[in-house]
Amino acid sequence: MADAWNPVQYERFKKERAQPFHDLLAGVRPAPGGRAVDLGCGTGELTRALHARLQAAETVGIDNSAAMLEKAKAHAGGGLRFETGDIARFEGKDLAVVFSNAALHWVPDHPAYWSRIGSWLAPGGQLAVQMPSNEDHPSHACARAVAGQPPWRERLGGFVRLSPVLAPEQYAELLAEAGFSEPQVRLQVYVHTLDDRAGVIEWVKGTLLTDYQAHLTPEQYEEFLVDYRAELFRTLPDRRPFLYTYKRILLWATR
Length: 255
What we know:
alpha/beta, single chain
């Protein structure tokens, strides 16, 4: 499947996307001399900030997008490196920190995945994860609606992007079952002020819609965007500026 990730499109909202990362990082203790992994490192700029905060001997950023990792090269060095990899298949050992910002919502079957996470950490190791949880917003619901209608149901071969993200309280239970002590889980609503509702389309073109783009030809994807825009604009009010609310789950735990 083609790499649909576009660093330029993704970073159109660079400041807004970075805020949840910094909120997550604030709850992580330094781990001098330890080893860390950033699952879904993207362009690597934020991984560099993570590496500096941890004072880690080694931090590895993992991503499956060649375009993103090409940008990440500029941030490598001093114990920080980047690798191509599927975060759904990741296996670690004796890590001081497992960190993931806005990436694990691409991994299927969360109960099974989260049951493995504890084994990757050394005793006292830290887990810090942030995931979007905005599936009920029209920005996401309208994409599902369009994908389920003809001609897109046929062109996509029945594919509809469904998030595996669970309710916040379920992660608290999964972490406790995996042997983590005193897990902290919170649901936070971020409010982004966009020029107008068309900004919502530009936002999801950098993330959610990449999954549809990867299943379509370039010409089909442009047609999909037309239908998505029409469906979204039937739902969202025409306000300027437009307040785009976005829910995210942030969690921390120690093994």
